[in-house]
Amino acid sequence: MDIAALRTANPDHWMKAAAIRALTLDAVAAANSGHSGMPMGMADVATVLFEKHLNFDPKMPEWPDRDRFILSAGHGSMLLYSLMYLTGYEDMPLEQIKDFRQWGAKTAGHPEFGHARGIETTTGPLGQGIANSVGFAIAEEIQRATWGKKIIDHNTYVIAGDGCLMEGVSHEAIGLAGMQKLSHLIVLFDNNNITIDGTVDMADVTDQNARFAAAGWHVQAIDGHDPQAIDAAITAAKADPRPSMIACKTHIAIGHAAQDTSKGHGALTDPAQLQSAKEVYGWNYGPFEVPADIKSQWEAIGARGAQTRADWEARFATLSGTKQAEFKRIFAGEAPKKLSATIRALKKQITESQPKVATRKSSEMTLEVINPIMAETIGGSADLTGSNNTKTADLGVFNPDNRKGRYIYYGVREHGMAAAMNGMALHGGAKPYGGTFMCFTDYARGAMRLSALMGVPATYVMTHDSIGLGEDGPTHQPVEHLAMMRATPNTHVFRPADTVETAESWELALTSQSTPSVLCLSRQGLPTVRTEHKTKNLTAQGAYVLADATGKRQAILMATGSEVSVALAARDLLQSDGIGTRVVSMPCWELFAAQDESYRRKVLPAGPVRVGIEAGVRFGWDQWLLGERGNAKKAGFVGMQSFGASAPAEVLFEKFGITAEDTAAQVKALLGL
Ligand SMILES: Cc1ncc(C[n+]2csc(CCOP(=O)(O)OP(=O)(O)O)c2C)c(N)n1
Asked: What letter does residue 67 receive in the DSSP assignment?
């Protein structure tokens, strides 16, 4: 690597990029942890991208028509933080760089959405960023078609490393982007042949260029330290009608003793080596010092976007008042005012007609009334459209010939779907929902966890939510999934009992600003249990008394979803034996836990025996059975203790003992009868 030649060939460029490298070395050394090599290796690519191509305004990081920059290789967070500091983001003063990775700093180990304005998404779990970017690009396509190029017309740029490309989710993302011809998506691949364990070829010999090309991408391969080549490649990428991948051959930890080695991937903290790397760069400044002329060149790059944004605002101002208000509403993530009246009307109609339908069908019935009034919903399914009931008549299919379509055939790509949903929501102006079988939340888990961590209000439509799906058998029957999802912070897990609760759950999901929702829906038909119309959204309280005890209250049955009707049938049996029994429907534990103690006490008073009924494992239920004034000697559970089996649903409920009779017997045993 002839660094001297690089320096002399493009001295201005070199010093701007050297500022990123020096800040990275200093911040990682101060934190005594972090990843130095990737920001050092990709500094040239990032400098050219920010200087010559990226439309952004550090003074207004949320400007809707900005280009998006996604650092998929999130371990290289100092690349992003350096760029934000240098170009003048208000949330990224030098103190933040000095505080890298410390308590309370915005400069977390990996970029965290919400920490500093300008961080587009949380990255760090490799592959997520590139998969998010597909969602960003889809949202941009739909909005460009809807609002016109004058309002929405921007690119999504991604920096991804070998690790991102080895992760399975990247395959799903690349395939989807290629088929969808997302021409505004440009991936800059940090092709340095190094990961943590050593050289990439110890684990992978994939020809990445051929792989992307095979998926329908435009591919270029360049020297990632040559600013002219980088510029030309990005220019060509922007012009191509396909998504673009630019393989940038780089040297990890360039100029450092650890260059081109896996040691260069991590924290380079040796002071003498750090110093000599700076000397190689011609960087004769102290720690965290960026000389004024170089800083002002960077600030000029940051200031470039102000005019572009002002031009955009002028164009936006030509829209009618109604259109402006609608645009602002959807970008603020606010549901339309009509939503609650629409849900109420549906609830009223359902309490009158009292259909016996699967809650997946209830969800479709709800979407049929929601989608026409919410232009921001983008639905989809991972190849289970007919089973998840996610597609409504009005949506239209999103594809290269129909950019106004709002339904996405994700293909068999649960993880890619969930990550793309995160990207759409983060892009703004989109409310994504996507379906699969609930058992396959396992496959989507990496991205679902990030929805929760980032506070992204995506809605997961998870149907076939128990052994109630029947003959497909144990591979498809979720047992532990409710517990796993409920264990995830900042996630609302809804398991509605009927169409009314399903409609209420959808209302809550679509009005959520910062919590993802999982709707757990049945395959099998369920009776309407909410037979009396209430305008109030009872699901918002998380749990409520559905049927109270007649006579002395001796038992409380708590149930969710399909087991609420089991609880009601058990109540009939118990009441006919003179045992006063209350049934509590618990469609969303998290919302119930958030209620006042006085409300919770009213629903779950001390004294009666309690039995939880749910076709899943007991894990988690003790919060309600033993906690909340409960008593171990007076608590029981009717549910699953093993994986399910392949048989008709009724047989399975019978064989696994999830019936009204089993429940009544447990109550009687607990009462010593
Ligand atoms: C899903 C996931 N698995 C593992 C890791 C831990 N990890 C962080 S960086 C890295 C290697 C990444 O290699 P590459 O993308 O080539 O980055 P570079 O070495 O070029 O910095 C690994 C395994 C992670 N962050 N995310």
From this structure: P
Model confidence over 466-504: pLDDT tens digits?
A: 999 999 999 999 999 999 999 999 999 999 999 999 999
Given a cut of 80, whether residue 1 has pLDDT beyond it is no
Q: Give residue ranges with CB within 6 A of ligand 1.
A: 35, 37-38, 73, 75-76, 124-126, 161-164, 167, 190, 192, 194-196, 252, 265
DSSP state of 118: T
In residues, how long is the chain?
A: 673
Please tell me the residue having the least CA distance from ligand 1 atom 13.
Answer: 195
Of the candidates 188, 151, 166, 150, which has an alpha carbon nearest to the alpha carbon of residue 71? 188
Among candidates 525, 562, 567, 526, which has minimal Cα distance to 546?
A: 567
414 annotated active-site: yes
DSSP symbol at 615: S
**Residue 73 Cα to ligand 1 middle (Å):** 7
Q: How far is the CA of 167 from the centre of ligand 1 (A)?
A: 10
Q: Establish how many alpha carbons lie within 13 A of residue 197's alpha carbon, considering only the half-sphere containing its beta carbon.
A: 7
Nearest to 158 by CA among 25, 68, 271, 31: 68
Nearest atom in ligand 1 to the alpha carbon of residue 35 is 21
Which residue, by CA, sits nearest to atom 26 of ligand 1? 125
Whether the pLDDT of residue 543 is over 80: the answer is yes
Mean local confidence (pLDDT), 188-202: 98
> How far, in Å, is the centroid of ligand 1 from the Cα of 104?
25
* Tokens describing residue 404: 């106004």
What lies within 8 Å, CB to CB, of 256 at 6+ separation is 25, 36, 37, 40, 264, 268, 273, 274, 277, 280
